[in-house]
Amino acid sequence: MSSYRNPTPTVDAILQKGSKVLMVRRKKDPFKDTLALPGGFVNEGETVEDAMKREVMEETALEVEPIDILGVYSDPHRDPRMHTMTVVFVAIIIGGKEKAQDDAASLEWVELAGIEKAAFDHAQILADYRQWKGNAGSTYWSTKRRSTQVDRNY
Amino acid sequence: MSSYRNPTPTVDAILQKGSKVLMVRRKKDPFKDTLALPGGFVNEGETVEDAMKREVMEETALEVEPIDILGVYSDPHRDPRMHTMTVVFVAIIIGGKEKAQDDAASLEWVELAGIEKAAFDHAQILADYRQWKGNAGSTYWSTKRRSTQVDRNY
């Protein structure tokens, strides 16, 4: 095993319906009572895509499938507890009946255009997602320069 | 800190010049003497993009910048030592003079079209990269169904 210390991997999911995205009102700290994307820690022996599906199921009772990766966010200060990194999937709902459970106090469909505050770096993630939708799927990371347009003709 | 066990995060870089990509001949096990993408473990306190830049510098003496994320590969069996996950960046060379060092026995520019064997899941990653280049930057993960075209008009 590695004898070094590494960031702890997490996953988050963006689920869109019309002009809204699904967020969970957090039951626990950090960011208790704040809106966050559904997500959580990746377990050893589990792929990141399976972790994303499991976490969304645990919190929302929805069955989802990944369709793309928006980015990987790993700023050491994004989570006050420890250095985490998150793989953010764009996903679609394929089954289940929406119900807040586990770490989610409630579920809310929030206007994507209006989200300015959210737990962790999720407001930045959703700002990037708005870019992404108009930008042929360019990917994101914490320190990416947001003003630069990626030239895909390399 | 988390009391759970998680996959250990790593990073890899795809650097293309003409029809070739840069690979390192591994000096150590696992996959000793086999070609691999430049990359390595992410340290606590370091972003994945900085880890990618540092690892490429350590192995090749090249200064690089990320331009996109190809995907995140986290099959529990991709590394015989432990469960690792890797964030694969597409990057460009912005400085430095190429020189094999650290874990790299030698550096080789390899025809992208001809790579069938490589360390870890790097042959799959490079097959995905060939797709990616023709596919407007769709992202990849270990269990993604490779035959399905992603419909971006959702």
Automatic annotation (TrEMBL), chains A, B:
Highest taxon listed in the record's lineage: Archaea
> A GO molecular function for this record?
hydrolase activity
Keyword Hydrolase (UniProt): yes
Name the Pfam families for this protein.
NUDIX (PF00293)
Listed EC numbers: 3.6.1.-
Q: Residues in domain Nudix hydrolase?
A: 6-134
- Key words, A-Z: Hydrolase
Q: Which CDD domains match?
A: NUDIX_NadM_like
PANTHER family, sorted: ADP-RIBOSE PYROPHOSPHATASE (PTHR43736), DIHYDRONEOPTERIN TRIPHOSPHATE DIPHOSPHATASE (PTHR43736:SF1)
Q: What is this protein called?
A: ADP-ribose pyrophosphatase
Instruction: Please report the organism this UniProt entry assigns to the protein.
Output: Candidatus Nitrososphaera evergladensis SR1
List the lineage, top down. Answer: Archaea, Nitrososphaerota, Nitrososphaeria, Nitrososphaerales, Nitrososphaeraceae
